[in-house]
């Protein structure tokens, strides 16, 4: 398919070497407001879609078709504003990844993000993440790159290896994924400014950083990220968290209850509002003890 103005715009933004700040969008109004307030790009947040669209925590419960349909609607609202879209692990084996990429491609996203977690994935700022072998994810990347009909749709490769395997392994994977053809690479959840700086020094590709309020990565200013050479900064929880807090305040005002009992200042607290504890109990109930050793 021919490329789109949004894809051309994202490529031009990357080429300008200016930091792209992308708020996390998850529904029609968040997309409209992002466009109307003058943002140059947006990020389709899987966690926001899971919570707002389906009342679920971000632990691999939302399907490829559900995400692709949300991507289609939001890309339509944004128009020429590029949408970087979360696609989790690609939702299965390489053949599933091919279908996912085709769906996101026709939906009109400017970039698709894939990650090397084992399925079912978890929010990058929750504990107990597992990753697949780097060679396995390279096959995911190969399938994604071959499946896109327009090279203007960029592929973002995310590694979650920092938590289970350490920063050295995460940086090694990021460089491997760049060599395998990823247009942008994303080391999830560095835990301090030293790690953020080291990633910038040692990864030879355009870099995306995920800034989650209350998450594992500390806040970093736009000026500092520009200085370090990061290409994209996503803020997936900024809108969803503030909207949630406002709804809690309004609801508690209506019935005279205490809003502080529903705080969502961390990813775990936010997902508990949509059933994380209950879903974790279900997972534990059906997971054999010997399969619970996390990589």
UniProtKB/TrEMBL annotation:
Q: Which Pfam families did the record assign?
A: PEP_mutase
Gene that encodes it: Dml
Q: Which Gene3D superfamilies match?
A: Phosphoenolpyruvate-binding domains
Record key words, sorted: Lyase
PANTHER family reported for this sequence = CARBOXYVINYL-CARBOXYPHOSPHONATE PHOSPHORYLMUTASE, CHLOROPLASTIC (PTHR42905:SF5), PHOSPHOENOLPYRUVATE CARBOXYLASE (PTHR42905)
Q: Which CDD domains match?
A: ICL_PEPM
The EC number of this protein is: 4.1.3.32
Full protein name: 2,3-dimethylmalate lyase
Its source organism is Mycobacterium attenuatum
MF (Gene Ontology): 2,3-dimethylmalate lyase activity
């Amino acid at each position: 398919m021919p490329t789109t103005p949004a894809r051309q715009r994202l490529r031009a933004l990357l080429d300008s070497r200016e930091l792209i700040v992308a708020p996390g969008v998850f529904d029609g109004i968040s997309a409209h407001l992002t466009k109307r307030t003058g943002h140059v790009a947006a990020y389709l947040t899987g966690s926001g879609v899971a919570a707002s669209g389906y009342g679920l925590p971000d632990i691999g419960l939302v399907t490829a078709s559900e995400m692709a349909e949300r991507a289609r609607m939001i890309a339509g609202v944004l128009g020429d504003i590029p949408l970087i879209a979360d696609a989790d692990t690609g939702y299965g084996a390489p053949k599933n990844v091919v279908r996912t990429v085709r769906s996101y491609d026709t939906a009109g996203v400017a970039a698709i993000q894939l990650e090397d977690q084992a399925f079912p994935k978890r929010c990058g700022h929750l504990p107990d993440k597992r990753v697949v072998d780097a060679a396995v994810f390279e096959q995911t990347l190969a399938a994604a790159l071959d499946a896109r009909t327009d090279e203007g749709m960029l592929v973002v490769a995310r590694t979650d290896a920092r938590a289970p395997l350490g920063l050295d392994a995460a940086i090694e994977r990021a460089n491997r994924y760049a060599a395998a053809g990823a247009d942008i690479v994303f080391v999830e959840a560095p835990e301090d400014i030293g790690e953020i700086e080291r990633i910038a020094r040692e990864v030879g590709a355009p870099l995306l950083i995920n800034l989650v309020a209350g998450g594992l990565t500390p806040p970093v200013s736009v000026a500092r990220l520009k200085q370090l050479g990061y290409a994209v900064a996503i803020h997936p929880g900024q809108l969803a968290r503030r909207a949630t807090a406002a709804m809690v305040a309004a609801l508690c005002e209506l019935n005279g209850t205490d809003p502080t009992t529903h705080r969502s200042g961390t990813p775990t607290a936010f997902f508990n509002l949509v059933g994380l504890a209950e879903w974790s109990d279900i997972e534990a109930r059906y997971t054999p003890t010997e399969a619970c050793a996390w990589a």
